[in-house]
Q: What sequence folds into this?
DNA sequence: TGCTAACCCGAGTGAAAAACTCGGAATTAA
DNA sequence: TTAATTCCGAGTTTTTCACTCGGGTTAGCA
């Protein structure tokens, strides 16, 4: 039950865009370098973010990516859903075909509660929140040291 | 970000024991058959549940497994932790070694919130709850049909 | 105009993890 | 004593993940 790199890289990328987006479109190369992520792979992931309508791109030289809307209008949930393919921990909640095996329906209730809880959490955190949380954390540290 | 079969089979198995445990120890064969799970594989998983102290076993003919304590004292979280190896969605929350890459710390806060939320949910559901929820569901259906 | 920096896209690959099997030893009720 | 059952470690197969590669398109800029 671990998050794949898709989710992690994705969040990191979006966070990067939230920070650096003011300075014009950011190239894959720049994002990958800052985040220590493999360039060619990141390209794939960003393509997913674009399909989901979370980022926009401008092609050609000096091109790159920017957030499709302001950072306080994009939630962590948006990003994870785009890259991880849904937040439910079991298949049988995605489609409507209930399974015949071990996932028979007493467990189903459990998975539903989990999914709903997780959804509420990640949809309650925007990129903007992340930026502010982090700033606050650093401010805290500056005081104590 | 899907649950592995370990978690699913595990929950199903424990639920089975909560239901059928009154009739003496349940053999792997019986549990596997009822749940449509591969017998040899289930053996492995139950061994994990035993190590975690969630079930007890009696060997020899007529042997099998029973819950180690009453169903209202075992949570879904206990089972998932035993079989999935922790509930955190990223490595860097398990050990103390913060990563150097894409999981740099702005994201960390997000994963912590998620883990804590998930933990609260699964620790709030006991096997007893599952049994009762399911009974209630069936009762509901009987009325409407 | 042409060069180069970038996005775009689909297919391919290697390693690792997940899911499951197998064989044999130890235990115990009947 | 036999058959049912747990116990245990090692092996195998399948699937997914993480990532690469090559070639195409677009557009700024000299």
A:
């Amino acid at each position: 039950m671990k998050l794949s790199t898709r989710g992690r890289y994705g969040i990191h990328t979006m966070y990067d865009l939230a920070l650096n987006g003011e300075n014009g479109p950011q190239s894959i190369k720049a994002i990958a370098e800052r985040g220590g992520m493999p360039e060619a792979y990141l390209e794939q992931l960003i393509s997913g973010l674009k399909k989901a309508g979370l980022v926009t791109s401008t092609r050609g030289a000096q091109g790159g990516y920017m957030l499709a809307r302001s950072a306080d209008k994009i939630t962590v949930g948006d990003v994870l859903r785009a890259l991880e393919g849904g937040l439910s921990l079991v298949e049988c909640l995605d489609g409507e075909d209930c399974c015949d095996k071990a996932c028979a329906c007493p467990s189903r209730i459990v998975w539903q509660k989990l999914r709903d809880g997780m959804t509420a959490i990640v949809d309650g955190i925007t990129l903007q929140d992340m930026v502010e949380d982090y700033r606050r954390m650093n401010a805290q540290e500056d005081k104590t040291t």
Summary: The helical segments of chain A are 5-20, 28-35, 39-51, 76-84, 105-123, 127-144. Residues 4-6, 38, 40-41, 44, 58-63 of chain A lie near DNA strand D (CB under 10 Å from a C1'). The beta strands of chain A are 55-58, 64-67.
